[in-house]
Amino acid sequence: MEKSMFEHRKIQELDDFFKGLDCRKEKGVYFYRINGYNEEVARFIRKYYEAARLKGVILEGKIPNPDEGNLSYYQEIMGTGFQMSMGFFLTSLKKWLPRMRDAQRGQVAAAIYDALDSLRRAGKNENMLKNAYIKFMCWLYYRFERIVNALGENEVPKILYEGNISNYELMLVSILSNAGCDAVLLQYHGDQGYRKIDTETALSEELLLPGMQAFPETFNLRWVREQIQEEKNAERLYGRKPEVVNCTNAWITGAGMEDVEKPAAVRGDRPEFYYNCFFRISGVEDKLTCLNEWYQFYLRMKNEGRKIVITEQTISQPGMDEIAGIHRKNYQRQDQMLMDLSANIRYSANIELQRIMTKAFLDIMLDEAKLPGMNLNRLTNKAVYLLCWLKRYQPKLFVNWKMPEIGCFIHMGGCKNENEALFLRFLARLPVDVLILNPNQNVPCCLKDSLLYEIHYPESLSAERFPQENTDIQIGTTAYHAERELDTLMYQDSGMYRNQQYQKASTVNLKTMYEEIPLLWKEELKYRPNFSTVNDTVNLPVLFAKVSGVKDGQVQPYWSGIKALITEDTFVIKAAPFLDSMDENPMRAHATEFFRNGRVQKAKIKAHRDYAYGVLREEIQEHMLDKLQLLIDKRLIKGTFENGTEYTIVATVLNLPRELVRLIQKFDFTKKNPKLIYLNTGEKVISLEDTILTAFLSLVGFDVIFFVPTGYQSVEKYFNRKLMDEHQIGDYMYDLQVPDFGRISLNTRPGWRDKIFKRGT
To answer: Staple partner for 404: which of 17, 264, 743, 759, CB 3.0–4.6 Å?
Structure first.
């Protein structure tokens, strides 16, 4: 009996597996099992997987036993005969696998004979040998034909088996290995199961390398395959990659702005890198000198010819024109979206810079795509924002760019949202120094990045603008800063608040008993239930209620109770309607300009000649316009985004009576809030404009109370949902005349004359 010409050999290194037969020191094959893991093993498995995929067989789990169809076809072709002889095996293989060459057939037949002979010596009868033979033949035909036809070639075919191999599976792999095939067994849970089959470990070698540990739980061939696919997708996505990459912060000394000032030429000399830095500096080293030092830094950078972009507090959102300038389609897949959107990155003056930008864009977006809860639509929006900002700042940062030039992007203040943070992370992977200055340590910054270098100084400074001119520098005295520190100590988390301390607020409607209204009415907001401050925003607990009927039908105490609520900060409406669609309103004709694509156009509103709120404090203007946006977004008013009611809302809010505007201007969010009392005693319908007015004032922070002695429906008619508490306090009364409150007494107890003359009435 002729033995196989292929002997099992030991490897000197893992790369021996990938050598051709003629390059192997000893002509033979390798059969190894891998029971442990390290980085070298991971690289090998990946490379071996690719080799087996191209020329070999990959088995992820058990080889299925031949089914009835397989067996029926075998019997149809081969019959039912069986002989334990080389001649029978050679003849059968020629008929069953006709594409095999004679040399291949001889090797396989010899290997089958040896395997079955070992079973015979172990006590198996002829019927058992026949069944094993038929199983092997079916497996060879249905699972291994591409291997058997490549046996003996210089490029050795590969078998990769994952899992706990069975006895017959091991025999077949051994047959193919002996016939000229390399084999690797991946055993994630150790060698115990294998050693029960091959007790003397005679069929294969165990791979032993320094530093091997247990396989990670997540490791398997499926994961390897996904990694390979991702890289192929990335290769298709990226196209030709740039010849230079970023070396961010690895070269710095940690001196902060001194590192930023270093010329690019002295940062490093390796031609495959551009050397940039990515800093966040929180706090200031010296409050007295900080602004001047920044100004001097700016002047030196300008004198050196560095290209500088400065943003303050926030990076303004892309406008509609900028968004429209990004060519995009409807996307079904992430890779499709990224490939298409990356085509918006153009820099014809330097194709290498274009490749750098494209790679940075794809790197950062693929990283972002891995975040929990990220979907295609949200990812697309982020990508569009990035491209808009790149197109906005590209001309300033990269005009006439060439290696090794490094621009500088300075952001004053913390990153307010994830889109800003994403853009700065993107810039930090371009030939740009990204410097985030956050002098006020009480201002949060949401940016996180593995490349970011942090510098913390002990002192804090409230500075919102980066000094680019001498006029921007306002240096505080020692006494001034001492006062600010005392101010912080007194008003930070102390329950005490300085005048106009907060600039942002949101409202919470209080649900109360009727009897509580007079008690809460004159209280400062900070003493009301549910008042709170979160970061720089105040939560305002406000009253928004309707009082129906007259208690006990007694008119005089009713009016006296209302008079008691009229303070110097109270605006009283005595008849309906207060506002009417026919009233003169210069903002009505421009409402469609002021509200587009679902957004209030703040800049256009503020620039309009008829804009009446320009005299107000900037933060109050922003507060009012934000609440206008909120009123529309929440669709509180019927008809919003249905019949153009949103434009009526805009026109109404932008044309408030002067008295109300003045109440808003003096409003301090932690103290007493302004009030609106609406008296609706008759049967005239309250207008849509009145409804808009009261809903808006409630969002701004007003207490709003409707007194409706008739109990008739008032503003509810125009609300999409119940917004007000309604208090039923007594009998409904009609045709009441609103009195002159100046002549109403607050003393509601009857005098002695009333007691005498009205007794028995």
So the answer is: 264
